[in-house]
Amino acid sequence: MPGRPGVAEDLAGEKPHAVRANRSLLTGCCQLPSAMTRPSQPMEMTLHLLPALALTILLAPAEAARAQAPEPGGPVLEVVTFRLLAEAKDAAFLTAAEATASPLRSQPGFLSRSLTRTPDGVWTDHVLWSSQATADAGAVAMMAEPAFAPFMALIDGPSVTMRHDPVVLRMD
């Protein structure tokens, strides 16, 4: 096998698909017992299947996530990004956000909330709802809630984007 120093000597001229396990190839990296380093048909098969096994292990999390496709009516993450008005201070905004906790927690279907901020001043409000229906109802109710007025007054309206994403995998 040109271009891979050491491998050509270890394979002793064998083709890559017919690799035989020999002491220098296996015991150097894996410390296998001597009984397992003797050339045998099962060992050749094992070495031949190792790349496929590694790929299967690497892809398992993606397959599991695909298997957990969102159910209609399942949890939904509301993701709202925005900037504050130029004159707004972060501390005042966080105080206003904390004042929304009680009315938000009392909403049917509310599960959790996180508020994040990037270094360049983009805020994201992540609100987890039990379903799209409860997210929609919560949005309407919160816009009418007086405790949300100071919070909303500090946000630059044209910068707001909102979306609802079905939750496909959740780890608490």
Explained architecture:
The protein is of the alpha+beta class and 172 residues long. It is built from seven helices and four strands, in the order αααβααββααβ. It has helices spanning 7-11, 23-30, 41-67, 90-98, 101-105, 132-144, 149-153; strands at residues 76-82, 110-117, 123-129, 161-166. The radius of gyration is 29 Å and the shape is globular.
What is the count of β-strands? 4
Fraction of residues in H or I helices? 40-55%
Structural class by helix and strand composition: alpha+beta
Number of helical runs?
Answer: 7
User: What radius of gyration results from the CA coordinates?
Assistant: 29 Å
Distance between the termini: 48 Å
Q: Shape from CA axes? A: globular
Mean pLDDT across the residues is 76
Poorly predicted tracts of residues: 4-12, 14-33, 45-60, 62-69
Strand content: 15-25%
Report the major sheet. Answer: 4 strands, antiparallel
- The arrangement of helices and strands along the chain is HHHEHHEEHHE
Sheet with the most strands: spatial strand order: 2-3-1-4
Task: Produce a short descriptive summary.
The protein is of the alpha+beta class and 172 residues long. It has helices at 7-11, 23-30, 41-67, 90-98, 101-105, 132-144, 149-153, and strands spanning 76-82, 110-117, 123-129, 161-166.
Q: How does the SSE layout of this entry go?
A:
Elements lengths: L6 H5 L11 H8 L10 H27 L8 E7 L7 H9 L2 H5 L4 E8 L5 E7 L2 H13 L4 H5 L7 E6 L6
Antiparallel strand pairs: 1-3, 1-4, 2-3
List keywords for this structure.
single chain, 172 residues, alpha+beta, four-stranded antiparallel β-sheet, 7 helices, globular
